[in-house]
Design brief:
The protein has 109 residues and is of the alpha+beta class. It has a single domain (25-106), classed as Uridine Diphospho-n-acetylenolpyruvylglucosamine Reductase, domain 3, CATH 3.30.465. Helices cover 24% and strands 26% of the residues. The protein is built from three helices and five strands, in the order H-E-E-H-H-E-E-E. The chain has helices at 6-14, 46-53, 65-73, and strands at 30-32, 38-41, 82-85, 88-96, 99-106. A five-stranded antiparallel beta sheet has the order 1-2-5-4-3, with helices on one face. The longest helix is centred in the first third of the chain and has 9 residues, at 6-14. The relative contact order is 0.16.
Length: 109
């Protein structure tokens, strides 16, 4: 038997939580496809995408690309849903436990 922490209980409700005591199993990834699309983890910071790929996603009351999409739609999107922002087509690739896990950004539409 083991000890159940408050973090364990919260993670059962809202999903994994990353804090200063956790080590990232795999860093937040952005993969560029042969076609030029970006496959992005929902937890990727908007600032990183803007800096690394010369994008102009706005700042807001969110830090991540998933937060940006939720703010844009004012809801959690469904898998396969398309969202257009400023010439970027965003396709929702994976949603789990009310969290956007993966997105595809098509940079030239």
């Amino acid at each position: 038997y083991g000890v159940v922490t408050l973090e364990d209980l919260v993670e059962e409700i809202v999903g994994d939580i990353f804090d200063e005591h956790d080590s990232p199993e795999d860093e937040q990834e952005v993969l560029k496809t042969k076609g030029g699309d970006l496959l992005v983890d929902g937890s990727t910071p908007v600032d990183d995408l803007n800096d690394d790929y010369d994008l102009d996603l706005p700042e807001g009351e969110y830090d991540t690309v998933a937060g940006f999409v939720i703010d844009l739609l004012d809801r959690i999107p469904d898998v396969g849903e398309l969202v257009e922002y400023n010439g970027i087509m965003i396709r929702i690739e994976e949603v789990a436990h009310n969290r956007i896990m993966k997105l595809r950004l098509q940079l030239s539409i």
